[in-house]
Glycosyl transferase family 1 (Cellulomonas pakistanensis), 373 residues
Amino acid sequence: MADATPSPLRIAMLSYYLPSGSKIGVGFQAHELATELARRGHHVDMFSDCPPVPGAAYGHRHVAMAGSLRTFRFATDLGKQDLSGYDVLHAHGDDYWLWRRRAPLHLRTVHGSCFEEARHIRGAKEKLRMLLLGFTEVLASVVADRVVVVSPQTRRWVPRSHDVVPNGVDTSRFTPGDEAGRADRPVILFVGTWNGRKRGRDLAAAFARDVLPRVPDAELWMVTRDAPADPGPGIRVLGRLSDEDLADAYRRAWVFCLPSSYEGFGIPYAEAMASGLPVVATPNVGARYVSDEGRAAVLAELDDLGTALADLLLDAPRRAALSAAGLARSRAFSLTAVADAYERLYRTPRAAGLRRTRRAAPGGRPAPAGGAA
């Protein structure tokens, strides 16, 4: 009889970014997924240029980098790492030079499209960088055995993708509060950057122009580290918050807004929804997917953003309806559901067969790790 309990897996996870050294969302997602998989008993090692995350439940292998073009050179240095002995190689980027088979299953998660981001980013140098990174995403989709995208729309730019697995949020941390815990005045919460595609600067302008004249006691709380010293009346810059303080901010705010020009997924949207917080967003790819094409959020173009926010702050029944719709939608993005999906992919028949071959070589000895499949 077959063992009903699958054995733990050895997983090599690759992510240039981690929360310990970067605010990029991919790093947070890689960290959260690795934590959940380690909690389930799998052995997970994270290969990253960033330092270890304090208290992380998984192992850390530092791929030390220095100098310029590190995001490109990281891929070359990964090829020098010993990845033998792992059952799964799960890359969140930069695996496009790993042509030789190093594990029974090489899985790549594409968290968005650099081609799409190049259409919206400002500056010729940044556009060129995004275009080059876009070509590495295409190359990586050929190198990997299995390619996962985080939203259906991302498939437009990924010529070879097999599955859609969204990013996940910890629904034990991001939970709804009660009305007694809400701020005593209307609060809009923003999580992102003042500059760049998150467009915090544009939100601040819309708040001053369209929200304050109609809701004079409103506040805009901005979880950001690049805002100016005086961002404007009614605006509070919170800097970077701890996980616990961020979850509390979601529960205290009245409305969440992230007016990005582009998101491949948009983890803050899902965090806000899981916290019972109504969401207002611009109709970028990620916001459309996470909100189920606007059924669980308000989608408004940038020019109409301030009006939509003021309308929602003044409409309690509408906020309650959006809170319920967002909470229901957020269940599709729970970290446990996402980890379940990846575990199923890790144990695909091809990968399982290759694992058995490696673990039971002729003569009863373990097969050498890192051999060609």
Observations:
- Residues 357-373 have pLDDT under 50 and may be disordered.
